[in-house]
Amino acid sequence: MRPVQHLHQKHVLQTVCALEAVVLRTFGPEGGQVLFTRDNGQAMLSRSGTRILTALRLEHPLARMLVECVWKHSGKTGDGSKSFILLVASLLRTIYTAASKEPNVSRVYHSREVAESTAARRMADQMLAFASEKLKDVIALAVAPIGFSLSSAQSASNSDVAHVETLLASFFRTRLGWAHCDFMGGLIFKLLGKCSQSDSSSSSLRFLNDNFPALHTRVSGFPVSCSRLIEGQVIHRDFATHCHGDQHPVKAVVFNIALHPEWLNASHMVEIGNGTHGKSIMHFSAWAESSLENIFASLQTLGVSILLFAVKQSEAILSLATQAEMCVVECVDEDELALFLHLSGASAVTDYREIRPEHVASLAFCRPILLGARRYVHVAFPDSKVTQPSSLIICGLGEGQTDQYAGAAQDAVRMLRTTWEPPGATGKDPSSTLPGCVIPAGGTFEFLLHYALLQHGISENIPVVCQLLAEALLHLPRLIHSNKPKHFLQIQSRVWSFYRNPFQPDGLLWQPEISLANHGEQCSQGDATPSLNCLSGLESVSCKFHLILAVLQCVKSLLRVDTVLHVANELHPKSAKSNNSSDDED
Prior knowledge:
By secondary structure, the protein is α+β, with helices and mostly antiparallel strands. Helices cover 54% and strands 12% of the residues. The chain folds into 2 domains: 11-148 and 430-562, GROEL, domain 1 (Orthogonal Bundle); 233-387, GroEL. β2 and β3 (43-46) form a beta hairpin. α8 crosses α9. The two termini are 26 Å apart. The relative contact order is 0.16.
């Protein structure tokens, strides 16, 4: 391979189109799944864009750069990985076509590729600058009111609840298919309800997002229909000492340290000495044992019967705990300990010489629980506590399928948080109307924003920038309705009609009470003009905004690359960076 490779527009577009061809097979309501086979014979079947991109063996640095942008976006918003790739490809094609038609480019023959690259970079910079400053306001004025008008059309008082349930089912439809979208959506909705009984929705979503690894357990070997919620918290360790049955109520203490590790180390150091300190060893060991017994006596005085440790304990500690009839759980993950302390309101012991009542956590019960083939520790907290979450048990027939369900559930929580907590929505900014706004799927958002951008470009005298972005957006609804192009034109016409007069009687139709499991059957009946109730449910307006902004940033970065250097040795970015300048970050 050449040590230096100069990139041209065709190289960038070829790389992006190769990834587009992969995710295109799984995109839209009629999208299928991709089967991956590994060298060891294992197979993976998935339609998750992030999971598919992760499984690819990418050699070209531009492809890896693009996938990293997708990971960063989906890691924050939980959604849009496939749309990200498709929109990047559409934008690049639109930009390259426009750049080749510029007057200055057409007159330059000896360096036409350089001129086209320069024009393409300028257009990408202009679109990103426009989106960073104006796009949120355009969406808030032209798209968000449509979403709220759909909500206000609901006569039931719980329309927000119906929208959340439908939004979740729509999300799982794109990840897991028709069969389990309603079931998984309802499960996550119940989990959110458990956390928000005594708290606001935004803080509940933040709590779920931050603690999701500790709030769910994966169980392989069972159908997904066995997934459920259970009260309290599951600690993913077994008891290190004998558990005396189902204990309730019970008190527990969390230790972030091993009990007296310095004593054991000091004793060991004396033993490997010159052998003249045998008497000192005996006195030291006796003193250490006496101190340990005093600690356990203090714990018994406080009524403690459960000890949770972040690190492994010595056999002496386990023996003393058994004698004191205390159950020990060791090597607990720090995220699970943090959640336990948050839910119980207690603090961890960091100094063995000071164990006070504020270190003692009151539990409703503590008992072993068998999930699949593994045994864990199951605890619950008194009803008086502010937060009463439940643990999510996610089942799947195989480990790969279980991991996909768990990943989709975590991404659903991220998607909901992005929907209700978009950043920068403060004060009198019109973008403050974005939180919680949803809109029918199937290209409705792209159609509405397409028309809004064209009108905004004319009014603000920036027609080229807005027109390029508007044309690129239509690529997504075209792909959604690629199997029935007639539907694309019909829905585009209805959206345009509703955009001009959103209150007309024959505007867009939406019936969120219809189960998504029946949408595929309804949509397949004839070629009549489709209504939006058969276009895969609802989408988050805020997630769409974040998607467009992230795509434009990625396109700008891709177009900045003009040379690839192939090196034989490993790069050391930390030593190479002399400062944290913007050039280094770019």
